Amino acid sequence: MAAAQGAFSLREVLAAFQACVTEQREVLLGPYLCGWRGLVRFLNGLGAIFSFISKDAVAKIQIMESYCGGERREEYRTLQAMVRYELSGGLVDLQRRSAHPDSGCRTVLRLHRALKWLQLFLEGLRTARQDASTSAICTDSYNASLAAYHPWVVRKAAAVAFCALPSRDAFLEVMNVGGPEEAVEMLGDALPHIRDVYGITQELYEQHRLLDLP
Ligand code: 1PW
């Protein structure tokens, strides 16, 4: 089962987020999107109820993949290059979505905010007791991060989906890395890399005042 096609393994995601950060502390978009693809597979493994959540992430990943595979792919090799290119070319809508509704900058910002949720959720999962409620962990991490950016209707739908989350052990099993202890250990290895990628992105966006892009 662990090798089933399309099955999520936390190992892949670990490797992708680890491979994101270059020696110059730049974030490579290729592995970043690869990591996101892994996360989406993970979400899909949690059941159909999560498909509305993964659908938007997939749409955003696709937008970014088309930039990364497009004519201007050199400008989209790293997050830093993308920000430079889009800002200097006036390719980002700063006040409201109009001429450039799907800029790389605003699209990555949505994924970046969602990554915070994931980070908090996995941290909660890692440190929780065996009998802890994953729904509560998920709700708390969502409320502490992404919820602030979502309208009421999305928050309600998310709350319903969270109720359907399996137990902590079942959850760790979906991660496909072995027993619960192994999964917890793997989370301990993976999280610093996710935190690192999040931190670099946050700093970059702060510097360029991009954290509130419409
Ligand atoms: C179990 C923990 C998993 C964390 C995975 C993170 C996936 C997050 C996707 C949440 C999507 C909720 C529904 C979509 C909302 C969009 O309106 C919103 N997108 C996101 C990613 O927050 C904003 O995008 P928009 O409307 O400005 O294009």
Automatic annotation (TrEMBL):
Signal peptide: none
Coiled coil (UniProt feature): none
Catalytic activity: N-(9Z-octadecenoyl)-sphing-4-enine-1-phosphate(in) = N-(9Z-octadecenoyl)-sphing-4-enine-1-phosphate(out); N-(hexadecanoyl)-sphing-4-enine-1-phosphate(in) = N-(hexadecanoyl)-sphing-4-enine-1-phosphate(out)
Localization per record: Cell membrane; Cytoplasm, Cytosol; Endosome membrane; Golgi apparatus, trans-Golgi network membrane
Main subcellular location of this protein, as a coarse class: membrane
Key words of the record: Cell membrane, Cytoplasm, Endosome, Golgi apparatus, Lipid transport, Lipid-binding, Membrane, Nucleus, Transport
GO biological process per UniProt: negative regulation of interleukin-1 beta production
Entry-linked Gene3D superfamilies: Glycolipid transfer protein
Domain Glycolipid transfer protein per the UniProt entry, residue ranges: 29-176
GO CC list: cytosol; endosome membrane; Golgi apparatus; nuclear outer membrane; plasma membrane
InterPro entries: GLTP_sf, Glycolipid_transfer_prot_dom
Membrane topology: Peripheral membrane protein
Gene Ontology molecular function: ceramide 1-phosphate binding; ceramide 1-phosphate transfer activity
Family assignment from sequence similarity: Belongs to the GLTP family.
PANTHER family in UniProt: CERAMIDE-1-PHOSPHATE TRANSFER PROTEIN, GLYCOLIPID TRANSFER PROTEIN-RELATED
Protein name as annotated: Ceramide-1-phosphate transfer protein
Organism the protein comes from: Bambusicola thoracicus
